[in-house]
Amino acid sequence: MNPKTGQPIKVAVIGGGAAGFFGAIQIASGGKCSVTLLEKGKQFLSKVKISGGGRCNVTHHCLDPELLSKHYPRGERELRWAFETFGPKDTIRWYEERGVLLKTESDGRMFPVTDSSETILQTLFQEAKRVGVRLETEMEIHSVIPKSDSKFEIKLKSGKILEFDKVLFATGSGRKAWNWLEAMGHTILDPVPSLFTFKISDRRIDDLSGLAFEKAECSLLEFGYSQIGPLLITHWGFSGPAILKLSAKGARELFEKGYDTTLRVNFLPGMKKEEVRKRIEKEKELHPAKLINNTPVLGIPRRYWERILEIHSIAASKTWSGLSSKDLHLLTEELTDGRFRISGKGEFKDEFVTCGGVSRKEVNFKTMESRVVSGIYFAGEVLDVDGVTGGFNFQNAWTTSYIAAQGILSSV
Ligand SMILES: Cc1cc2nc3c(=O)[nH]c(=O)nc-3n(C[C@H](O)[C@H](O)[C@H](O)COP(=O)(O)OP(=O)(O)OC[C@H]3O[C@@H](n4cnc5c(N)ncnc54)[C@H](O)[C@@H]3O)c2cc1C
């Protein structure tokens, strides 16, 4: 209650995505505030609906806050502690208490057992209704201005002015909100895309779309980033978890270089170059009469093996006994230190996120309140926080909005 007016504290949550919706529910369930959720679009939760290919990858089954925080190229340090307050275990419990069971896939991603994002949408809507969140769509906001009496004026395009005691910004990567925040004195780190595939035009992978390597080490040498994981050849280059995670790590540098740099692929991570060389040489001893073409080494997919032999002019008719030291060197290099030129950024339709946003230094992650303007709070992708693919981005939305709600509730 506002002690002067005896009225509940008025909170505006701007942005009806995962962070705003969850934050509004958490604030309203505290029973101290009247909460209005303002969404500029026609619908709430539009990204949740299409997320995870329509299945919604709600979170990740990584329950250790320290390990979990390592999945965030931007925000690791701050989220390490935030996850102690509200982590995947809490997300799982929160949904479970509302009748939504989550299942874990072999790679740790968690989805509703219904395999439908509608389940998540319905739960959030029911809960918002139950705790009395006022839901407003098509709210074209013209400006948000802090007033001298510590209140906030939200001016709508229609000219109408609304007044609130606190404002939670959960506007995702909406440029307008960043402009208002800049005008209030916040630093916005330039937004650039994260989570994408690499465009690579190279004879070694031409027409091999669909070919997968279970484990490869992919590195952006120029920027010093590496990632081990499954690698997939696509029509336009490389994709798969290793590439997507690497794109997140190098999102800013790749953008600045116009997505033009060198990718190194070690198709045999865990083995030293010398070991690989010896292992190939051993084939010569063991099977001198066999065709090199017919005996891919170390689990390298046959089509890729044949392709690199072809490219290095190692004839299909050549047997292991004819392997020259030059061939041995070329094969070893190709398998452990393959260099590919990235010439652009490809699409990844399952998940997409923006790197950049409100500077983390200007936010107190214990409350998610701004250190620049008191009374405003942040949650979700509006911040310079983003995770790799796998449910980490929604977990950031649930965690930061939960903490923002507690921050607001403890301040009133
Ligand atoms: C196709 C796709 C699939 C994805 N799948 C997954 C997944 O399975 N798992 C996962 O963890 N992550 C996934 N992500 C990432 C995840 O969706 C985002 O990280 C998450 O939605 C961020 O939540 P948010 O609430 O911060 O922002 P958003 O979801 O972007 O919500 C922000 C909301 O604010 C509104 N808004 C913006 N500006 C204003 C304004 N000025 N006034 C009023 N309203 C405003 C927007 O219209 C929007 O509704 C996916 C992303 C995409 C694009």
TrEMBL record:
<dbReference type="Pfam" id="PF03486">
    <property type="entry name" value="HI0933_like"/>
</dbReference>
<dbReference type="Pfam" id="PF22780">
    <property type="entry name" value="HI0933_like_1st"/>
</dbReference>
<dbReference type="InterPro" id="IPR036188">
    <property type="entry name" value="FAD/NAD-bd_sf"/>
</dbReference>
<keyword id="KW-0285">Flavoprotein</keyword>
<dbReference type="InterPro" id="IPR023166">
    <property type="entry name" value="BaiN-like_dom_sf"/>
</dbReference>
<dbReference type="InterPro" id="IPR004792">
    <property type="entry name" value="BaiN-like"/>
</dbReference>
<dbReference type="InterPro" id="IPR055178">
    <property type="entry name" value="RsdA/BaiN/AoA(So)-like_dom"/>
</dbReference>
<protein>
    <submittedName>
        <fullName>Aminoacetone oxidase family FAD-binding enzyme</fullName>
    </submittedName>
</protein>
<keyword id="KW-0274">FAD</keyword>
<dbReference type="InterPro" id="IPR057661">
    <property type="entry name" value="RsdA/BaiN/AoA(So)_Rossmann"/>
</dbReference>
<feature type="domain" description="RsdA/BaiN/AoA(So)-like Rossmann fold-like">
    <location>
        <begin position="10"/>
        <end position="406"/>
    </location>
</feature>
<feature type="domain" description="RsdA/BaiN/AoA(So)-like insert">
    <location>
        <begin position="192"/>
        <end position="353"/>
    </location>
</feature>
